[in-house]
Each structure stands twice: as C-alpha cells, then as structure tokens.
Specification:
It is a single chain. This protein is an alpha+beta fold. The chain folds into two domains: 93 residues, 2-Layer Sandwich (Phosphorylase Kinase, domain 1); 192 residues, Aminoglycoside phosphotransferase (APH), C-terminal lobe (Aminoglycoside 3'-phosphotransferase, Chain: A, domain 2, Alpha-Beta Complex), CATH 3.90.1200. Helix 5 packs antiparallel against helix 6 and helix 9 packs antiparallel against helix 10. The N and C termini lie far apart (41 Å). Helix content is 43%, strand content 15%.
Length: 292
C-alpha cells in the first residue's frame, strides 16, 4: 500500500487525475491509508478486511443524507476496484480541510456540544432508515458481554500493577455494564446512527466544528451508540447540555454509557500498551462513562 501502488491505481482507473501529485497523509486512522491527491482530493485505501465496505456504503448513502445534515460529510467522487494485487475497493473523495477535534479545545464548549446534538438529531431524522437496503445495526451490547467482562478483568489487573487511578475500578465498571445490559432496549422505529462517533472523526476549522467523517459504521437501529461522543469529548457541564439538546431518555443514556465503556475497553486492551495517546484517550473515556 505504498505510494507507487496508490499511484498505479489512480492513474489506471481515474486517468483524469493522473497528473495530480500524490502524497501520503499522516497520521491516518487505523482503518485506512490516506493519500492527498492534489489540493482538493484524497485517496483512502482500506488497511484490513474490516473496512472494505466503507467505500460502497458512503457512496450509496452519504449523497442522500448530506442535504439533511448541518455539518459537512465526505463526498465520494469515485470508487476504485481491486487491482495490482490490492484486494479491496477504495475511494477518491473531496478533501475536507480541518483539524481533528480535541478534548483540550472543545471539552468545555457548550455550543459545540449543542451543535453535535443537532447533528445527531438531524441524522436520526434523515429519511431512508426504513429502506429495504439500509444497513442494519451492526451489533448489540449483549454480543459484547463476554469480551467486555474479560477486558474489565484485564484492565483492573493492569491498573493494580501500574497504579493507574480510579478510572479502572472493576466494581464500578461491572455495575455500569450490568446496568447497560439491563436497560430497556430501543423500541421505536430504527433511526440512522454514525456508529463510530468520537473525536477522531470530527474536524474543526478555526476552533469550530466543521465536518463529520468516516461513516464506515453507518447503520440503522438504536442511536445509543452515538452517545459515545459525550464521553470521549465532553466534560460534565457540556455533556449535560448535549443530553438536554438531544432529548435522551434514561434508558438510551445508560445504553450509551455502556457503548462508551465497551468501546473504550476494547481500544485500551488492543492498543494502550504500544500507543500512549490511545491509552490516555481511552482511560478518559472509561472514566467519563463511569461518571455518567
């Protein structure tokens, strides 16, 4: 997946862009290698088979959803096919300018929290969630039970050894997880959810939210999983404003805390040992989920 491969893929499948310079963009996400193509385009190549449906999903659904959303989303200009030994479909999109949202910049921002609530409200109300080919819920909290309990045990043992503070309280994590599993399920019509709604998929320009990216987990069903953003980005004060603006009931909020806990634990156990940035982010996410 080096620049030579990306260049051959672009030049053979999209010759109209063959003269544009191609430069690797770092840091990229865990799912794609990203190249800048000229000043206005990007090339996204899946790193693993868990990300191979994103190009098709975004090209199918984002043109229909975008007009209903108050923040910019990716605009795909072409979906490339496997070639030259590269096995998966890939995408050329418009480049969205901006910096990745950070806790330091936005955690205390009530306006940003309300803006995110309005985005999710618009997404949930967008048409098409009942379409026959709409992507369905990609999983439930119950399906993650065994892995989550194992992760609770693992991080609790690690915390005892490394003297990590109270973010890894096994009893508190278990109590939250039990409450999330016991919370009443979503019993209303399916709505759209982003599915991976955290700081790394939000862009800012001049300190203001500008775009939401990476819709690879886009689906329909229970919107609770998008509440993860309340625990990855926000403080207690901005989180209260977010919940009020979104109008979240107690059961959905509890399931959302469960999603924040299980995804935080998953990322921590997979990456914290080798990535201090992920360790810090997920430790905060777990602690904020416990605070509620």
């Amino acid at each position: 997946m080096d620049a030579a491969l990306a260049r051959r893929l672009v030049d053979t499948q999209f010759p109209q862009w063959a003269e544009l310079p191609l430069t690797r963009f770092d840091p990229a996400g865990s799912d794609h290698v990203i190249y800048r193509l000229g000043d206005e385009l990007s090339v996204r190549l899946p790193r693993h088979d868990g990300a191979i449906d994103q190009a098709a999903k975004e090209s199918r659904w984002l043109p229909a959803l975008a007009p209903h959303l108050p923040l910019a989303v990716p605009v795909l200009l072409g979906v490339g096919e496997p070639d030259f030994g590269y096995p998966w479909r890939w995408a050329v999109s418009r480049w969205l300018p901006g910096e990745v949202a950070t806790v330091d910049a936005l955690a205390e921002s009530t306006p940003a929290a309300v803006q995110l609530a309005r985005f999710l409200t618009a997404l949930q109300n967008a048409p098409g969630a009942d379409a026959s080919d709409a992507p369905v819920n990609g999983g439930s909290l119950a399906e993650r039970d065994r892995a989550t309990r194992a992760a609770i045990a693992q991080v609790s043992q690690r915390a005892q050894v490394s003297q990590v503070d109270g973010g890894f309280d096994a009893a508190a994590m278990t109590a939250l997880w039990d409450a999330a599993l016991d919370a009443p399920a979503w019993d209303r019509p399916s709505v759209w959810f982003h599915g991976d709604f955290h700081t790394g998929n939000l862009l800012t320009v001049d300190g203001r939210l500008s775009a939401v990216i990476d819709f690879g987990e886009l689906g329909t069903g229970d919107p609770a999983r998008d509440l993860i953003i309340a625990f990855t980005l926000m403080s207690a004060t901005s989180r209260t404003a977010f919940r009020t603006a979104l109008g979240v009931d107690d059961a959905t909020w509890t399931r959302g805390r469960g999603w924040a806990l299980t995804t935080g634990l998953n990322a921590y156990t997979a990456h914290a040992a080798t990535n201090p940035r992920v360790a810090a982010q997920t430790t905060r996410q777990i602690a904020e989920a416990l605070r509620g």
